[in-house]
């Protein structure tokens, strides 16, 4: 709580609820009311209710000079913008990173061909806009789950936000940096839960793997081919006549046996669950939901019925806590079989009728405050995932569930990961997955990714190879494809493509310590897992709309090739020095470079000062983890770098009771001396790494020494030591083996 100067005109003091306790001072200044927080001032002009937001120095952050309502009670707010404004966020939208000149609708929709630039509404609606003005950034979150429109096209030096139903209930979020806006927005709407580590592995899917034998065969093939994989998804054909919470008795006669067999292979099952419950008086789920009145109703009190995969179906009323609890508990059917993850699809909800969804005048009970479907349409999918995540958690004996959702609203990140729906095997769709997932990340939804290889249409070996290279570094990594398209498992196009897919999926698994640490950062601070360069280099004009390359955390820069027959591409390296991950070549940043990228190469760069944590790539995160950690230091000649390395058991919620390890790593290089500090901030998990192999790469020294353990004559001798080091002058690499348990350590490399 910040104490504030008292002014004579103070009328009221209010404590705004929110992430941080903030004191508001409200004053009557004659022509306007002034609302002051510890960060900014809002001026509300009495004459026309226009709003002005300024920072403490009086600098204008935003102006909302007009609000209006039409006769149908649709409301609109207009905000002034400068000529040099850039817009980001808005969740899952097509187009580029910068949303200047675009118009989007928020109305969760299942479109047949959704990933084209003129589509204004997709499966997710995150009504959160980041406005980046040259001097400072701010965010506007419209908390309205009905239909709304963000228009950055029509009003010249202004943008408008319009709500069809409900009010213009918006939050103004000051920066000054985009990072501050994202942090505050996610403090308000929530951050990802640390997911089970297996869900960060590779997922394989197909609409559909048709029977138990095919699923088992798929798993065995992954193991024979030594391609890492943690998850196989079951699409709608596993069910008995598309009835949710059933297995087809002929195609899947022994799901429990299948799941047990798969577990031995290190693979888990994630079955699809749609919200539509088949209207079948003989079917238990329908009977229970009907008897307890848990389905959405029409205004005349009869259940809303709409066709989806099972034919005429009814839809649980997830706005009501009672229905959510019932639905959550139905998942015991799965948890009792050993299933720990659920895939929520069609939850916009998509209905095969004229409205393409539940009728807008249908009713939701909403815990005793009835609302129409139109007023809360965009909440439906998120509330389904909330019910699912909570039900699974209740039934998993302390293990973390994984939920994947197609639809969502602001806050979906608390319950589910998100995939971007039905893209197609087009190069263009691979390219647009980058800005889409980057903007999802800026909108709080950091655990997301597209169907790798493309869902509809037919992929090619080349497209699959390139898409897998990119997808291997995305937060959510799943290959999924549609009925009757060519097969696109990693081995479907012969050995060359298979090798490329294997190599990059392995890269993902070897970077698991880094990836998991970045997931933890997202869970703690809301920072996206993959980031547009803009987030880390906000002053650089070259990156305002750069979205064909991205950062994983803040240390690795990937620049995928997303065109056919293309083996070179331009890469922008921001300020500082960078190293080519593959060749080790040092490149000066602040300029464009030409990357040579034959089909087996993803252009990937490491920032000078980076501390990259790796492990031996396992074929599944379930298999016993390697106890050896590798830390590659991209030694800064004159500079520094830092990384927070996090670890826990990867499956339970014990980390909430402090069963985790957090190491603050820091490297500094100056005048021929390099220092690496490893500071165990917290060590509450004893299953962590027992052997640490640290390599100082790119040392510009003819000779050097280290005061730690014994000096080994060569690599082989070093392997045998519990503590010691070796300098390979040809490679310019000093390798140290550290012994556990790791106390505060400082390694100082000195020239000699
Ligand atoms: C929807 C989903 C897709 C799934 C299909 C069948 O189109 O987006 O991923 O495979 O339904 O369930």
TrEMBL record:
The DUF5110 domain covers 628-696
On whether Nucleus is a keyword of this UniProt record, the answer is no
Q: Which InterPro entries match?
A: DUF5110 (IPR033403), Gal_mutarotase_sf_dom (IPR011013), GH (IPR017853), Glyco_hydro_31_AS (IPR030458), Glyco_hydro_31_C (IPR048395), Glyco_hydro_31_N_dom (IPR025887), Glyco_hydro_31_TIM (IPR000322), Glyco_hydro_b (IPR013780)
Ranges where the Glycosyl hydrolase family 31 C-terminal domain occurs: 526-612
**Boundaries of each Glycoside hydrolase family 31 TIM barrel domain copy?**
193-517
GO MF terms on file?
Answer: carbohydrate binding; hydrolase activity, hydrolyzing O-glycosyl compounds
A GO biological process of this protein is: carbohydrate metabolic process
Q: Which Pfam families match?
A: DUF5110, Gal_mutarotas_2, Glyco_hydro_31_2nd, Glyco_hydro_31_3rd
Task: Provide the Glycoside hydrolase family 31 N-terminal domain boundaries.
Answer: 22-151
Q: What keywords tag this UniProt record?
A: Glycosidase, Hydrolase
Query: According to its UniProt record, which protein family does this protein belong to?
Result: Belongs to the glycosyl hydrolase 31 family.
Protein name as catalogued = DUF5110 domain-containing protein
Question: Which species expresses this protein natively?
Answer: Paenibacillus rhizophilus
């Amino acid at each position: 709580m910040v104490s504030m100067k008292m002014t004579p005109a103070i009328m009221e003091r209010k404590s705004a609820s929110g992430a941080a306790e903030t004191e508001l001072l409200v004053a009557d200044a004659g022509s306007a009311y002034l609302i002051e927080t510890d960060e900014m001032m809002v001026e509300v002009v009495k004459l026309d209710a226009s709003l002005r937001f300024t920072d403490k120095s009086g600098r204008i952050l935003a102006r909302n000079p007009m609000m209006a309502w039409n006769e149908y009670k649709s409301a609109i707010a207009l905000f002034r913008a400068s000529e040099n404004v850039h817009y980001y966020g808005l969740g899952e939208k097509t187009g580029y990173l910068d949303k200047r000149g675009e118009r989007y609708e928020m109305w969760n929709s299942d479109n047949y061909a959704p990933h084209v630039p003129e589509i204004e509404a997709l499966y997710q609606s995150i009504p959160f806009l980041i406005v980046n003005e040259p001097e400072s950034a701010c965010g506007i979150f419209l908390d309205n789950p009905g239909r709304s429109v963000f228009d950055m096209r029509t009003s010249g030096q202004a943008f408008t936000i319009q709500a069809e139903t409900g009010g213009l209930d918006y939050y103004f979020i000051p920066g000054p940096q985009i990072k501050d806006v994202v942090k505050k927005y996610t403090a308000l709407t929530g951050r990802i839960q640390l997911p089970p580590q297996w869900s960060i592995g590779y997922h394989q899917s197909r609409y559909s793997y048709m029977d138990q034998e095919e699923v088992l065969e798929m798993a065995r093939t992954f193991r024979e081919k030594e391609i890492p994989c943690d998850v196989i998804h079951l699409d709608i054909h596993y069910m008995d006549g598309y009835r949710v919470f059933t297995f087809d008795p002929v195609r899947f006669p022994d799901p429990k046996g299948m799941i047990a067999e798969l577990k031995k292979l290190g693979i888990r099952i994630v079955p699809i669950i749609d919200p539509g419950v088949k209207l079948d008086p003989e079917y238990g789920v329908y009977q229970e939901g009907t008897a307890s009145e848990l389905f959405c109703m029409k205004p005349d009190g009869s259940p809303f019925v709409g066709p989806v995969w099972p034919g005429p179906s009814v839809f649980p009323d997830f706005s009501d806590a009672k229905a959510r609890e019932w639905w959550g508990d139905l998942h015991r059917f799965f948890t009792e079989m050993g299933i720990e993850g659920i895939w929520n699809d069609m939850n916009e909800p998509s209905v095969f009728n004229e409205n393409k969804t539940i009728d807008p005048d249908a009713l939701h009970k909403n815990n005793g405050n009835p609302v129409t479907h139109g007023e809360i349409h965009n909440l439906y999918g998120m509330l389904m995932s909330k019910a699912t995540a909570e039900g699974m958690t209740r039934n998993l004996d302390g293990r973390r569930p994984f939920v994947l959702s197609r639809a969502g609203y602001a806050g979906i990140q608390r319950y589910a990961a998100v995939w971007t729906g039905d893209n197609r095997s087009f190069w263009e769709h691979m390219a647009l997955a980058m800005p889409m997932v980057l903007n999802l990340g800026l909108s709080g939804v950091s655990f997301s990714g597209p169907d790798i290889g493309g869902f509809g249409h037919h992929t090619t070996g080349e497209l699959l190879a390139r898409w897998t290279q990119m997808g291997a570094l995305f937060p959510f990594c799943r290959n999924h494809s549609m009925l009757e398209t060519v097969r696109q498992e990693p081995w479907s196009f012969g050995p060359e493509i298979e090798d490329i897919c294997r190599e990059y999926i392995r890269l993902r698994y070897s970077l698991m310590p880094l990836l998991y640490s970045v997931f933890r950062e997202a869970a703690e601070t809301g920072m996206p897992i993959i980031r547009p360069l803009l987030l880390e280099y906000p002053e650089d004009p070259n990156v305002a709309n750069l979205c064909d390359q991205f950062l994983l955390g803040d240390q690795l820069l990937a620049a995928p090739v997303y065109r056919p027959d293309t083996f070179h591409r331009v890469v922008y390296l921001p300020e500082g020095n960078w190293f080519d991950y593959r060749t080790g070549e040092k490149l000066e940043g602040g300029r464009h470079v030409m990357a040579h990228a034959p089909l087996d190469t993803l252009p990937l760069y490491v920032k000078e000062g980076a501390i990259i944590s790796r492990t031996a790539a396992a074929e599944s995160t379930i298999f016993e983890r390697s106890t050896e950690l590798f830390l590659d230091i991209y030694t800064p000649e004159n500079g520094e770098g830092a990384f927070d390395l996090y670890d826990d058991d990867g499956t339970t919620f014990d980390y909430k009771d402090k069963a985790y390890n957090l190491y603050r790593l820091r490297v500094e290089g100056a005048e021929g001396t390099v220092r690496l500090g490893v500071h165990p901030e917290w060590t509450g998990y004893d299953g962590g790494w027992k052997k640490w192999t640290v390599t100082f790469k790119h040392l510009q020294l003819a000779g050097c020494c280290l005061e730690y353990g014994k000096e080994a004559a060569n690599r082989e001798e070093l392997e045998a030591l519990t503590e010691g080091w070796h300098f390979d002058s040809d490679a310019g690499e000093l390798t140290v083996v550290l012994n556990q348990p790791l106390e505060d350590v400082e390694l100082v490399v000195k020239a000699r």
